[in-house]
Amino acid sequence: MAEIQVREKSKRPHISRPIFERTFNINSEQAIRVIRNSYNRLMVSLYAIDVILRIIGREETVDEIESIVGQMIAECAEQLQQEKLRLEKLKADNGITETPKYTHPREFVAKIASPQIAQFVELIRLLDQLMIVMDTLWLCQVISNKHCIDARYQWQQRLQRLANKIVTMERHAHQAAYEQGHGEELRLARQESGLLAEPGRIYEDEDSMVDDNELSPSSEKVGDR
């Protein structure tokens, strides 16, 4: 009985953290794949960077990582936006006003637990919007099958590689803090925040972000969309 009481006293309450839940419809297969392959793992890493590492007092590390992550996300968003504007002009120049419907759109419930999670969610939405314009141009025979297939794959991979880099940065920061004697603080902080005690397994090779069913540009069939 005494042992049970000691364990109960050693438990620390879970942190009550703020969170937004936002629901979006995602249409394109490419944006759906980014969510399926990368989102959950990335969300944990971004929250760990933004909150967990600050709890153990690694302010300088967090500030540096947040700056790098913010810059990477901003650069990707700018590239997506520029390409979307370019394709929208091409659509307007060809007098196209239609927008396709998608056979299997998904409802995406995003849990926003840090500002940078919100930023990455916007990247996913921007990717979806870009894919819709691209698919429109393909259906209207303005761009070729090969160009469309290659572009879909490259933009999807662009987001998945970015997600993998961020996850890798969080893992390295976690490992460095652990090696400097902050292991128990990290474990408690992650536990109280509802995260696993240790970061999940990630892949060193960025291309391995794609799951076993992913299609490469050379193997994707347009009719399968």
UniProtKB/TrEMBL annotation:
<feature type="region of interest" description="Disordered">
    <location>
        <begin position="201"/>
        <end position="225"/>
    </location>
</feature>
<protein>
    <recommendedName>
        <fullName>DUF1845 domain-containing protein</fullName>
    </recommendedName>
</protein>
<feature type="compositionally biased region" description="Acidic residues">
    <location>
        <begin position="204"/>
        <end position="214"/>
    </location>
</feature>
